[in-house]
């Protein structure tokens, strides 16, 4: 992911507009209609892969801003043409609602809205649309009403997760972290947001597979399976020629809807008082819980454990020393105030979010002619053009982050480190800013940060170190846990 355009400006961190940067035409071409989009898509998924796809063009155009086609393209996306932003300075324009619109831009294509009861969920809406703010309001309200339960419920969920990992290692010498952590996340969300265990509802043991089918049909055009038995171009056509219909997920979704509807009476009453329809609110709760939250957690926890695991025994010792000392000073309990005192743990979590942000693409449409700047130049974007901030490059910008490809657990410790937090963008906004009903930042930001810290804390309260192997799957890293070394000395 390294940029050929270097020379560090880290000591003078400033991304306010620079009056003297030369105006440059945005480089890059979309190629011939249809063929250009297919060529870019094959290169993106199969012949180059994501990072190489962006890296080769960044070098060729000597620019972090250029034009490309983004998948899926024909025939299911009307407009694959985007202007991509790959540096930390230009990227935040996708958060600036005075300049961009966020209607229907989760990707360059949208699934059929029958997946969501015919409604446009909050994440697909611009805040100027009539229901965005009301839906986000009930989401904030639900999260804050359950907030004081998160620590204890997640501690129980993690306890089950670690027990399952240990049993799998005992039985087969290794444990597939992603599979076990996905089940943990699914059950945790039910318990924490809906005060029920999915297995005790009419979903029985089917809940997670119902959600996986519903998600897979929506996301299939945006992934590659990499199955060796199917030639690439056949897989490409199978995944990206037509939108997948809702009906294979319909009966499972109906069950899920009934369960969430029943468990959410209070939230739905509140939604009605705000002028929302009960069913619209319920479809939105499902989207929030199982697309936004569960979808992101399944991508994120393997990333977090990958980077903490690769940190090795030295980092594990530093983290466990910090965590155990703070917990001891808090009377043996994991508390909110204690978590705030764990400076290395906090920094390590920010660093994992920085080095490998779990949601990579952020799209936006220019709502007027505008100018964006990278470190070297200014570029004009016309009203109506689609912008893509590709986050893994922006948060690995070598002009902002020294040795960006190195996982430096203490990068954000101290005054100098904290100044870098404004360049951490995983929540669809700066780490130094907060989600509100009027912006598009993730309303689960604080909750996700709390749970991530808690995962590291519980890990090192129980173990001295652990060993992993990392591979890749079509959704991100696949993490296999090879060993868990239980805490040697009982301190607390
Ligand atoms: C590590 C976990 C998470 C990550 C990485 C994450 C990331 C994101 C990102 C990048 C967006 C913006 C999507 C876009 O517009 O392009 C977003 C939006 C959203 N997230 Fe999260 N999220 C996480 C957890 C959660 C949780 C736990 C919840 C709720 C309990 C949640 C609820 C939402 C909602 C409702 C939106 C739409 C907000 C709006 O449109 O105004 N997320 N999240």
From TrEMBL:
<feature type="binding site" description="axial binding residue">
    <location>
        <position position="442"/>
    </location>
    <ligand>
        <name>heme</name>
    </ligand>
</feature>
<keyword id="KW-0408">Iron</keyword>
<feature type="compositionally biased region" description="Low complexity">
    <location>
        <begin position="1"/>
        <end position="11"/>
    </location>
</feature>
<dbReference type="InterPro" id="IPR001128">
    <property type="entry name" value="Cyt_P450"/>
</dbReference>
<dbReference type="GO" id="GO:0016829">
    <property type="term" value="F:lyase activity"/>
</dbReference>
<dbReference type="Pfam" id="PF00067">
    <property type="entry name" value="p450"/>
</dbReference>
<protein>
    <recommendedName>
        <fullName>Allene oxide synthase</fullName>
    </recommendedName>
</protein>
<keyword id="KW-0456">Lyase</keyword>
<dbReference type="GO" id="GO:0016705">
    <property type="term" value="F:oxidoreductase activity, acting on paired donors, with incorporation or reduction of molecular oxygen"/>
</dbReference>
<dbReference type="GO" id="GO:0016125">
    <property type="term" value="P:sterol metabolic process"/>
</dbReference>
<feature type="region of interest" description="Disordered">
    <location>
        <begin position="1"/>
        <end position="22"/>
    </location>
</feature>
<dbReference type="GO" id="GO:0020037">
    <property type="term" value="F:heme binding"/>
</dbReference>
<dbReference type="InterPro" id="IPR002403">
    <property type="entry name" value="Cyt_P450_E_grp-IV"/>
</dbReference>
<dbReference type="InterPro" id="IPR036396">
    <property type="entry name" value="Cyt_P450_sf"/>
</dbReference>
<keyword id="KW-0349">Heme</keyword>
<dbReference type="GO" id="GO:0019752">
    <property type="term" value="P:carboxylic acid metabolic process"/>
</dbReference>
<dbReference type="GO" id="GO:0044550">
    <property type="term" value="P:secondary metabolite biosynthetic process"/>
</dbReference>
<dbReference type="GO" id="GO:0005506">
    <property type="term" value="F:iron ion binding"/>
</dbReference>
<dbReference type="GO" id="GO:0004497">
    <property type="term" value="F:monooxygenase activity"/>
</dbReference>
<keyword id="KW-0479">Metal-binding</keyword>
């Amino acid at each position: 992911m390294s940029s050929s355009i270097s020379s560090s400006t880290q000591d003078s961190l400033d991304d306010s507009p620079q009056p003297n940067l030369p105006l440059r035409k945005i480089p890059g071409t979309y190629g011939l209609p249809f063929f250009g989009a297919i060529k870019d898509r094959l290169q993106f998924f199969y012949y180059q892969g994501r990072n190489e796809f962006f890296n080769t063009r960044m070098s060729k155009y000597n620019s972090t801003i250029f034009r490309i086609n983004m998948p899926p393209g024909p025939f299911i996306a009307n407009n694959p043409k985007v202007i991509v932003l790959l540096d930390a300075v230009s990227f935040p324009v996708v958060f600036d609602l005075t300049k961009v619109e966020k209607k229907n831009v989760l990707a360059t294509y949208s699934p059929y809205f029958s997946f969501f009861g015919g409604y446009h969920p909050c994440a697909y809406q611009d805040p100027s649309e009539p229901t965005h703010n009301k839906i986000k309001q009930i989401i904030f309200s639900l999260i804050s009403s359950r907030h004081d339960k998160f620590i204890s419920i997640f501690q129980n969920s993690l306890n089950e997760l670690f027990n399952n990992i240990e049993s799998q290692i005992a039985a087969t010498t290794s444990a597939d972290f992603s599979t076990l952590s996905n089940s943990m996340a699914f059950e945790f969300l039910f318990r924490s947001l809906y005060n029920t265990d999915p297995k005790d509802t009419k979903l029985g043991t089917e809940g997670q597979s119902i959600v996986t089918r519903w998600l897979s049909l929506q996301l299939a055009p945006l992934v590659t399976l990499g199955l060796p038995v199917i030639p690439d171009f056949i897989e490409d056509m199978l995944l990206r020629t037509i939108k997948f219909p809702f009906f294979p997920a319909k009966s499972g979704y109906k069950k899920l809807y009934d369960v969430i509807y029943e468990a959410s009476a209070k939230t739905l009453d509140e939604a009605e008082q705000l002028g929302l329809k009960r069913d619209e609110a319920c479809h939105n709760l499902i989207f929030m819980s199982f697309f936004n939250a569960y979808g992101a957690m399944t991508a994120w926890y393997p990333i977090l454990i990958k980077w903490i695991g690769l940190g090795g025994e030295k980092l594990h010792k530093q983290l466990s020393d910090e965590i155990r000392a703070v917990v001891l000073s808090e009377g043996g309990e994991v508390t909110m105030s204690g978590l705030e005192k764990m400076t290395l743990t906090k920094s390590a979590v920010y660093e994992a979010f920085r080095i490998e942000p779990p949601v990579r693409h952020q799209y936006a449409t220019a709502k007027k002619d505008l100018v964006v700047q990278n470190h070297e130049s200014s570029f004009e974007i016309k009203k109506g053009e689609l912008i893509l901030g590709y986050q893994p490059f922006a948060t690995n910008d070598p002009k902002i982050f020294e040795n960006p490809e190195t996982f430096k657990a203490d990068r954000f410790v101290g005054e100098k480190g904290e100044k870098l937090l404004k360049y951490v963008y995983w929540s669809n906004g700066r780490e130094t800013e907060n989600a509100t009903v009027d912006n598009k930042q993730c309303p689960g930001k604080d909750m996700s940060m709390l749970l991530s810290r808690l995962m590291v804390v519980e890990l090192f309260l129980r173990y001295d170190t652990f060993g992993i192997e990392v591979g890749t799957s079509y959704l991100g890293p696949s993490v296999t846990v090879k060993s868990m070394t239980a805490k040697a000395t009982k301190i607390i």
